[in-house]
Amino acid sequence: MIRSERADDGEYRTVTLDRPDARNALTPEALDALEAAVVDADEPVVLLRGAGSAFCAGADLSVVEDLEDPAAFAGHGQRVAESIETADAVVVAGVDGAARGGGVELALACDLRVATPDATFAETGVSFGLFGAWGGTARLPRVVGEGVALDVACSARVLDAEEAHDVGLVSRVVPDPAAVAREVAGNDPDALAAVKRLVRRGARGAETEPAERDAFARLHGDQFGE
What we know:
Number of domains: 2
Number of strands: 10
CATH topology of the largest domain: 2-enoyl-CoA Hydratase, Chain A, domain 1
Structural class: alpha/beta
Largest sheet: 6 strands, mixed
């Protein structure tokens, strides 16, 4: 259900949601495997992709319908998204095809989101009486702003790749997301980890300047032997 493979050049790891017959919908077991694949990666960059024609349809609805503890299931997804967000590696969501509900939330937990021209995005939960509860109500407004976030979450409408780029949901529309992962992985891994950590802290409203100074001094010493 989850494939984890080191790229041929060894510079990054590809983690693939591999359940194409179900549009890569996620079960609790798949969430655990996804978390382990990202957190345990030794490479400085992880590319998250979906097999087949979709990126990820979100939670497996057959599981959702039979939940005995919905709050625990939501908490499970939140923990996995948090693990992706705080992983040592820079995580690139390479969205090709449909991202729906929890699939959008997984992409939001990643550090970079890039899309192919065939990518589409939608928070469809409100259309059947639910909403994304894997941290999306916090991350979506941080990424696209409150007004756009409410539009996307309350309308359940589908955004194509161009509109997703226009509103800032993705940073690039590219033919092959692997090229972006390779580009990022070509940089210094310690610098990548420091930038990720500091930007994430700042996005959450934490004071970053002292940590930024310390990290810069440490990296400078590593590079110039001081």
